[in-house]
Amino acid sequence: xxxxxxxxxxxxxxxxxxxxxxxxxxxxxxxxxxxxxxxxxxxxxxxxxxxxxxxxxxxxxxxxxxxxxxxxxxxxxxxxxxxxxxxxxxxxxxxxxxxxxxxxxxxxxxxxxxxxxxxxxxxxxxxxxxxxxxxxxxxxxxxxxxxxxxxxxxxxxxxxxxxxxxxxxxxxxxxxxxxxxxxxxxxxxxxxxxxxxxxxxxxxxxxxxxxxxxxxxxxxxxxxxxxxxxxxxxxxxxxxxxxxxxxxxxxxxxxxxxx
Length: 259
Ligand code: 13P
Hints:
Layout: E1 6-11, H1 18-31, E2 38-43, H2 46-56, E3 61-65, H3 82-87, E4 92-95, H4 98-103, H5 108-120, E5 124-129, H6 133-137, H7 141-152, H8 158-161, E6 165-168, H9 182-200, H10 202-207, E7 210-213, H11 221-225, E8 232-235, H12 242-249
Parallel strand pairs: 1-2, 1-8, 2-3, 3-4, 4-5, 5-6, 6-7, 7-8
Residues 11, 97, 169, 174-175, 213-216, 234-238 line the site of 1,3-dihydroxyacetonephosphate.
C-alpha cells in the first residue's frame, strides 16, 4: 500500500474574528515544526481567510473554507462563491458538514453540487459523511454513509476523485466529548475505502485521504492516528487554542504507515 500523507485540519466553525485569527496563526507558526509527511490545514470563518492568506502563503499551513455556494456568481445574497474563496487563499472547502446538513437543511443533492463546484474551481472538497446516534443504534450506520457518499460523489470522474478528501464525522461524536473509538472509526474508514475502490478503482482508494472528526483532542489523537485507514482528522473545539491544536498536529506516531 502506498504511503498517504497525513492531513490534520482545524474547523473553526463560527469562532474567531479576523484579529483573533491572526493572533492564533502568529502564535501557532512560531511554535510549529513543519514535517513533510504531515499537512496542516486551518478552515477559519470566511471573514478571516483574506487576512490569513499573506501570513500562511509562505508557511507549511494551508487554508480552507467551511462552505461554498453551488453557483458561480449572481444575485444570491449572503452566499460566497468558489472563485471568491480561492482568491481569498482557500485550497480546500468543507462540503456537507453535519451542521450544514442538520441545522441548515442541506440535502445530499446540494452537497453534491457544492463538491462539483469546488472541483470546478481547482479547490479540494472535504466531503463530510456520518450517521446520527439513532441511525447507529438502529444498525443503519453504513446504509446512511453509503447513501451520503454515493449521492455526494454523483457525476465525479476518476480524475476528480483523486482531489476529494472524505471526512467521517459521526454526528453523535461532534462537540459531545465522546469520540468514536479508534476501532469503530477504523471499521467505517475501511468501508469508505472499499466504496471508493468499487466506484473509482484501487489506485484512487489507496491514495484517498479519509479523515476522522468528532471530539478529537490531545488525549485521543495518538491512538486514532495509529489506525491504518485513518489518514488524518478534522478537529473542531480542540483546534481553537494553540496548545491543543499543536499537540494534535504533533501526535505521536505509532502507525505502520510511518506518518
Ligand atoms: P468537535 O471536534 O468539536 O467535536 O467538532 C468536530 C467537527 O465537527 C469538525 O468538523
